[in-house]
Amino acid sequence: MRKYHIDYFTTLVAQIQTEVGGVATTPFVGKFFEVAPPLTSFKDTAPFCTIHHSTSINQIDSQYKVNKITSTTIDGKKVLRFLKKHFLQEYTYQLDFWLPIPSVESDYEPSKVNLIDQVLSYIVQNPNCINALDPVNDVNIEIRVTTGESGTMYEPEDYLDLYKTYIEITMRDGLFEILEEATLGGSTVDIGFANNSNNGT
After folding, report:
1. What are phi and psi of 55, to 5 degrees?
2. 138-152 residue pLDDT tens
3. What crossing angle do the helices spanning 3-15 and 115-125 adopt, rounded to 10°?
4. C-alpha–C-alpha distance, residues 5 and 124, integer Å
5. CA 152, 155, 156, 160 torsion: positive or negative?
């Protein structure tokens, strides 16, 4: 997992709303876990969301200078800066939203919650995850976010009367490097001439 991926998911999950007793709430704020809690505490912790990193795809990228970025000056010399992508990478995650199975005392009904629709709406409004590769020089890379399978699973025997709504999300990322190339801009060049004089003649 990469930190900026997790930051994106943390913000996404915090936006999800449910309705309890006719009042809209954001029950997943502070309840987004990279590591699931012990199974025995699932019921007491719900509602909550966990993330599972399923697969990564790594493919060598033959592009050399992908993009020219802001130049800089080092020791009085202008330095050109380029962004090189070494690998194309895709990280696939699964978000699992755990909620109580509907009962007389519970308003967490799948038909009312529409968790998947809310996730999709967030991604439509925020289609890119930002990788601040060099925040000092304002070099940011936009990582495309796409979605995969989604669904709802009921497993009361194993998960103590909870149901899980899940969705797969893929980050189309890469392994990047900033390259620097010095130029003659801003520098001085001393030109010397050979002395061909022989005893003043």
Report:
1. -140, 160
2. 778 889 999 999 998
3. 120
4. 16
5. negative
